[in-house]
């Protein structure tokens, strides 16, 4: 009889399975909510009732929508290639029922069902916006096998052959050389030296591109390797793709598959194929991973107590070894705190800061799109290594955004500072920044007057919160179109607080030796003399307002900026000259009023500029009389020779470009 292993040897496996249970317990993934009484739930139910038969008549893939916005429901359904008609119908009906039961009031949901007893795998997803043709990576769901590969096996050899099988399967799945509707699909049975045969399946939804399919599957493979390498199989699914491998055949997907022979052992003769897979207990075919995990329920309580003790012990031990930027340093007096992310988690989320995930480049770092392990999409700003200025921006942004909460400010979710890496993690906004819309001829046509007004009003409210309504008084100092992010509903969010300045509540102005910002958006008194106040931000807001109305960059006017050009047209009684041609049919009086507000904001005399409180009142009222503006600063830049008399000023600004 085998000797029972000691508790501490058994403990890590138990704990791993406990946390695995937490990861896979909810097979149906739900996001967002809709209000009771809305027609969204009824629309979803009616749409779901048609999917199981529609997917059959459309070759295994079907997408449709039902209802009117904002209660319109979009659904996408897919069965694996080679499906049996009745099996596909049963699978889809089962999943739609699970979604309605498990997500009764949730707006977005998805599930890849892969029950071996159904002999088919199917996907059902529902959203309140169309995802057709778009790569959707999050959320991700993983089903790892509860069994581990025997430690006596040659894992280097296994890893080499497993990677080769992964690459072969992924290339075949993304190749799409078939006329089938289910074009992105591959199932491979591969012989392994000293191991049972490996069965691997990959599939993507056919609405995405081949490149996106390959990327999606690559993310699934990376996710599995990072989290559960060493297990005897597993499945990772995302809304756009699924990856599964095991040591036994599943779904009936490998009946007519030609077995791939094992490659020769490095520096040795090829070994004869093993027949171990044929002697594998057939009962394994009915394994459902989440069910087996329940076996460890009895020792869970004891194991967790020991695990909590170990966490506390190592947390205390590692605290002294961290870099000098600690969580407590960024906690405010009210006890608020910011989540510290593990660098390994950030690397997984961004695929190693992959260039494919790059969203943009800033003055102090690069921004990437990332997907956390729970499927949440985030924006990750990786600050330039070894940059003292970047380090200052990092500390400043974390300390300020910890204490700011407003719908028109970007939300900082957390940070990471390990070694020489400094990373900021923000909420992800899908529509990028304002400059991508107003300075692009095609995208600008999408900005109706109503949308532009909503953007202007939202920016004004965000600034009012910074200047007057928050518990702090903050001057942003670098307001420009590229620092205004737009969410899915085109709601603006002020971003990039790295150069922001905190004022005392009774402080109205200050002088600085560090000029930070972007030429063209900086107020003249700030650019030339380092004098800053809330009126500095008001000036930048005025420039942006005129850019939004005109669709032109501040530096697009030869020899002068947008403010003096608009002022001259105002004096001539022709302010409509600057109006974007896409707005010609829009209410002229409303647009002229906003031009007037913009000119008030860019007046050369800072004392004459309005506060953001006045601006928001004017924007929200049709009856209040708006004052007449005075002249703005006429020189595009104040005397450049002044740089010689202010040599002690540390300039940190960027030039406008015509990207």
TrEMBL record:
**Residues in domain Gnk2-homologous?**
22-131, 144-250
Can you quote a single GO CC term? plasma membrane
Q: Where is this region: Disordered?
A: 264-284, 635-659
> Which InterPro entries does the record associate with it?
GNK2, GNK2_sf, Kinase-like_dom_sf, Prot_kinase_dom, Protein_kinase_ATP_BS, Ser-Thr/Tyr_kinase_cat_dom, Ser/Thr_kinase_AS
Q: Which residues form the Protein kinase domain?
A: 353-619
Membrane topology, record value = Single-pass membrane protein
Family matches, as Gene3D superfamilies: Gnk2 domain, C-X8-C-X2-C motif, Phosphorylase Kinase, domain 1, Transferase(Phosphotransferase) domain 1
Where, subcellularly, is it found? Membrane
Q: Name one GO molecular function term.
A: ATP binding
Positions with biased composition (Polar residues):
637-659
Q: Pfam families of this UniProt entry?
A: PK_Tyr_Ser-Thr, Stress-antifung
> What is the residue range of the signal peptide feature?
1-27
Q: Which residues bind ATP?
A: 381
- The coiled-coil regions, if any, are none
**Keyword Nucleotide-binding among record annotations:** yes
List where the protein spans the membrane: 289-311
Q: Name one GO biological process term.
A: response to abscisic acid
Question: What CDD domains does the record point to?
Answer: Gnk2-like, STKc_IRAK
Q: Which domain of life is it from?
A: Eukaryota
Keywords in alphabetical order, please.
ATP-binding, Glycoprotein, Kinase, Membrane, Nucleotide-binding, Phosphoprotein, Receptor, Repeat, Serine/threonine-protein kinase, Signal, Transferase, Transmembrane, Transmembrane helix
Protein name from the UniProt record: Protein kinase domain-containing protein
């Amino acid at each position: 009889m085998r000797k029972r292993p000691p508790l501490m040897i058994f403990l890590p496996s138990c704990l791993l399975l406990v946390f695995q249970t937490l990861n896979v317990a909810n097979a149906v993934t739900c996001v967002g909510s809709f209000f009771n009484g809305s027609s969204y739930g009824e629309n979803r139910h009616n749409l779901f009732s048609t999917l199981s038969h529609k997917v059959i008549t459309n070759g295994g893939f079907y997408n449709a929508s039902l209802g009117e916005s904002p209660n319109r429901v979009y659904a996408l359904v897919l069965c694996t290639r080679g499906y049996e008609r009745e099996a596909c119908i049963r699978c889809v009906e089962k999943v739609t029922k699970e979604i309605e039961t498990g997500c009764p009031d949730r707006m977005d949901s998805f599930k890849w069902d892969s029950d071996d007893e159904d002999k088919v795998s199917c996907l059902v997803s529902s959203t309140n916006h169309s995802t057709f043709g778009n790569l959707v990576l999050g959320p991700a769901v993983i089903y790892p096998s509860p069994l581990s590969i025997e430690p006596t096996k040659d894992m280097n050899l296994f890893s080499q052959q497993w990677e080769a099988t992964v690459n072969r399967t992924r290339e075949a799945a993304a190749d799409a050389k078939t006329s089938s509707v289910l074009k992105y699909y591959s199932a491979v049975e591969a012989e392994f030296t000293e191991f049972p045969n490996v069965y691997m399946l990959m599939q993507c939804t056919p609405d995405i591109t081949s490149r996106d399919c390959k990327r999606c599957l690559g993310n699934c493979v990376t996710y599995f390797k990072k989290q559960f390498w060493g297990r005897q199989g597993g499945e990772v699914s995302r809304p756009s793709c699924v990856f599964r491998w095991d040591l036994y055949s599943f779904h009936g997907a490998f009946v007519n598959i030609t077995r791939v022979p094992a490659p020769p052992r490095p520096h040795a003769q090829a070994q004869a194929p093993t027949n171990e897979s044929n002697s594998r207990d057939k009962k394994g075919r009915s394994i459902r991973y989440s069910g087996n995990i329940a076996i460890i329920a009895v020792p869970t309580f004891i194991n967790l107590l020991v695990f909590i003790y170990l966490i506390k012990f190592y947390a205390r031990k590692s605290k002294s070894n961290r870099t000098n930027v600690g969580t407590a340093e960024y906690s405010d007096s009210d006890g608020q705190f910011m989540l510290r992310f593990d660098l390994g988690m950030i690397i997984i989320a961004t695929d190693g800061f992959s260039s494919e995930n790059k969203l943009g480049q800033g003055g102090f770092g690069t921004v990437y799109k990332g997907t956390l392990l729970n499927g949440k999409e985030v924006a990750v700003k990786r600050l330039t290594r070894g940059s003292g200025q970047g380090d200052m921006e990092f500390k400043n942004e974390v300390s300020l955004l910890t204490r700011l909460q407003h719908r028109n400010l970007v939300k900082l979710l957390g940070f990471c500072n390990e070694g020489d890496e400094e990373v900021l993690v923000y909420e992800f906004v899908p529509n990028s920044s304002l400059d991508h819309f107003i300075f692009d001829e095609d995208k600008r046509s999408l900005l109706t007057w109503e949308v532009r007004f909503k953007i202007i009003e939202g920016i004004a409210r965000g600034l009012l919160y910074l200047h007057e309504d928050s518990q702090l008084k903050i001057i942003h100092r670098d307001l420009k179109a590229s620092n205004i992010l737009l969410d899915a509903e085109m709601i603006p969010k002020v971003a990039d607080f790295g150069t922001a300045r905190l004022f005392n509540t009774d402080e109205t102005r200050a002088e600085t030796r560090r000029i930070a910002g972007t030429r063209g958006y900086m107020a003249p008194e700030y650019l030339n003399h380092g004098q800053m106040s809330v009126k500095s931000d008001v000036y930048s807001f005025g420039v942006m307002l005129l850019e939004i109305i005109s669709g032109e960059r501040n530096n697009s006017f030869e020899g002068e900026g947008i403010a003096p050009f608009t002022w001259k047209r105002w004096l001539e009684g022709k302010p409509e000259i600057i109006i974007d041609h896409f707005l010609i049919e829009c209410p002229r009086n409303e647009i002229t009023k906003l031009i007037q507000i913009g000119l008030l904001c860019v007046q050369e005399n800072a004392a004459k500029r309005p506060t953001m409180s006045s601006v928001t009142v004017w924007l929200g009222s049709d009856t209040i009389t708006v004052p007449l503006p005075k002249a703005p600063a006429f020189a595009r830049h104040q005397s450049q020779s002044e740089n010689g008399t202010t040599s002690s000023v540390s300039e940190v600004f960027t030039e406008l470009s015509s990207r």
